[in-house]
Automatic annotation (TrEMBL):
<keyword id="KW-0378">Hydrolase</keyword>
<feature type="region of interest" description="Disordered">
    <location>
        <begin position="1"/>
        <end position="33"/>
    </location>
</feature>
<dbReference type="Pfam" id="PF00023">
    <property type="entry name" value="Ank"/>
</dbReference>
<dbReference type="InterPro" id="IPR036770">
    <property type="entry name" value="Ankyrin_rpt-contain_sf"/>
</dbReference>
<dbReference type="InterPro" id="IPR023827">
    <property type="entry name" value="Peptidase_S8_Asp-AS"/>
</dbReference>
<dbReference type="GO" id="GO:0006508">
    <property type="term" value="P:proteolysis"/>
</dbReference>
<feature type="region of interest" description="Disordered">
    <location>
        <begin position="250"/>
        <end position="308"/>
    </location>
</feature>
<dbReference type="InterPro" id="IPR002110">
    <property type="entry name" value="Ankyrin_rpt"/>
</dbReference>
<feature type="compositionally biased region" description="Basic and acidic residues">
    <location>
        <begin position="263"/>
        <end position="280"/>
    </location>
</feature>
<protein>
    <submittedName>
        <fullName>Uncharacterized protein</fullName>
    </submittedName>
</protein>
<feature type="compositionally biased region" description="Polar residues">
    <location>
        <begin position="18"/>
        <end position="33"/>
    </location>
</feature>
<dbReference type="GO" id="GO:0004252">
    <property type="term" value="F:serine-type endopeptidase activity"/>
</dbReference>
<dbReference type="InterPro" id="IPR036852">
    <property type="entry name" value="Peptidase_S8/S53_dom_sf"/>
</dbReference>
Amino acid sequence: MLGTALSSDSDDCSSGSETDLQQTPQTQEDPDITQQQLSLVKDIESGRFNRNLDIAINLEEFLARNSGIIAGGEHGTLIHVALRWSRYKSFDQFKPLFRLLVSKYPKLLETRNRQGETALHFAIQEKQSSAALFLCENAPPETVTRAIGCRGQAKGNCLHAAIRMRSNSHVTVQLISMCEKPSLLDRDDHGLTPLHLAVDFARCRIPGNEEVVNTLIARCQEAAYTLDIDDLSPFRFHLRTRQDFLARRYRRKTRQPSTSSSKIKEDREAALQRPERTESSEFETPPGDQETHAATSPAFRKANKGNDEKKKNVMDTFNTLLDEMETASYRLQNILKIFSPSLDSKQTIKKGHRGPDAEDARTVFEWLRLNGVMKVIRVAILDDFDTPHSEETIETALKGFDVEELDWMKKDICSETIRCAAPNVRILHLYWSGSNPVLRAWSEPDGLARLAKLEKVILTASQGIETRSRARENVETFLRRLENSITQVRPEAPVQITWQFDDDNMAKGSYTTSNLPISSLEPWISHLLKVGEFLSSLSQARHQQDLAATRKVRVCLIDDGVDVADLQTHEQLAGGASFIHSEATCRISPWYISEENHGTNMARLLQNCAPGMTKIYAAKVDVVNGRLSHATLNKALEWAAERKVDMICIGRPVGVRSGYSEESSRLRVETIRAMRRLVDEEIPVVCAGASRLDALEAGGSDLTHNLFDLLQWEARALLQVCSWARDDTLTRGPWDDNKSCFYVPTDGLPPSQDDASAKTNLDDASLAVAFGCALSALVIVVAQLSAESTSVNHRTLRDALSSMVVRGKGEGLVDVSRLSQFIEHQTRRQEKPEQDIGGLNKMAQYLFRNT
């Protein structure tokens, strides 16, 4: 009978349940079976098949005669054939057949045709919504649940197909109510969930679509927060599709009218006389967005004079509305830690363009006030020093908020304004223009000393018209006066005060090597900085000349997060994710806050050594005793692989417990699996090497190994970078070309300027990883800019670093001086070395000569 002739082909269901191999149809195609299937379907449609299948005798006779053709035809099962035949005919005549098949053999719903479509998926694809619903209503619920979750074309399940094919909203809602929750979170080949498809702006005007969206969210609220491959939630995906839709409609409406036939003939003849176009770059404007030669002719521009300004005004209004829609979707808490709405990087502060009655800051804080925010952890405003906000605006904007840290970049702000705007401020940033009376006013007993909860003052000073020594003397006097005033008012609560000149860009708690004098650095680091500055200027020159732009190197930084409010790294951040979940608060620790500033300092150093050439993807993982959590690291590696980054940087060791346990064995298997995926994706991992043994031993006796030391021979994507100064005591044999362990010097840096906490400083081993990651990024940029573009992966990057390794004395030390010599050679020959890529090409030949 039928049961012995069936086999499973439904192996791609999101529900994950396995089907019985003895009860699902075969996929072997038989032409005879196909003809018999078609003959039976035609008989049913024409009325020649006059047996009532609801009668038991007729049912047994039908199964005995046709059991061999229920599956195995060229078009799939008998359900597939009937659905194909009834595409343009009445469906009612096939209801008894469908009721019999799905009730007697429910696995037929999960059986695929040669296109990989199940019967249910095929019904939806053929826009036979009523047939799909009928099949689901007459099959067992558990089978329907699995069938809805089965993947079809483009790896989408039946919900994807129903929404994409714009099925009847009632049918789609019924399918949503019948499926399991994992099916609601499934993503197709484009990374879209059913909710992403439903909120596409082009589908919003379909009758009943709102009910579909509401049902999806009601059944699975997690779907509203699921991100696609571009890190867009369904709401942000809706905004983007709306913007694209309106932009396309605007282009159609503003498309320039055609000119006369004679003018078109002249333009055609002129076009034929033009030289052939060179090969276009991947960043070229799409053809649909380009203006025609007729539209750009002088006569046509004259006739349409004024249209550009009108177009600009319309687009500015449109973008403003989109920004309002985006910020209106934020759900804020009473205590606001970080609020950083997405801004266009081109919208920087323009000096002298803010009027005396500027309302921008007041409007933002009024909006926060209306959303119920009462306490703000930190306020950081990048103000215009030429025409800053008035003190009245600052008081009005911050009135009613409990601000803990105030960093409003307005020079010489009045202490009374600070007291009115933020009376409970704990950390205060001051900006001084160089006027001594301002310092004296701040340091009076009725000045800053009246701030009862003040704990720390950070002063950024300008030299002004005075000499450097006189300005320094004024600041030191201010520090003594302020300390005395605070002691008089509240002697039991001293205030910590730090200061620096505004042209001393030494970031607190980190090494910003690009701002240090070259003479104070280790020669190795000075060479690295020269290479970074040269490549940065060359990339900018190419961008200004409209040549092929250099894509920024995408680096995934796995650490304790990166501070999004840090001005030095803000433009560098491309996104992030956190893998720390607090069971006590049931919340995820935000990736844009770095508790120890370790990740922020790593990002700063990377930006300084490779200025403007990297984009950071911050992956926040748990840190215990200075070591990364093994479990959260595995998740971060998988996330980085999905983002298809160019490189992964891990500046801390990963603790592995000594001895064998089932948990540690499982985690190690997951790490090896993640590393193999990175090898397949050709993504190198720059991590700390044996130089971190001292740090490992300091945290505890049960965590005595670095994970990457154990995986050194199993993970080919690993590139370990060690500190030369720390490793002088280690025993090293001759360096082997097959090794993936490299050494860089870190003993030439001055001490950190931050005296608040020693834990914010990067140790030598972390510095070595940061330098190694920066050097790797520069190698990738060299490959992009050179005449013969070279694809850089973990193998070519290892070969490039190996080509710089010193032989003989100092085995394993990476020498950057040769790259710097190429640049110096070009500087002697050209006034503008960034315009001559001769040295760059030699640099590429030196690095990639073995590839």
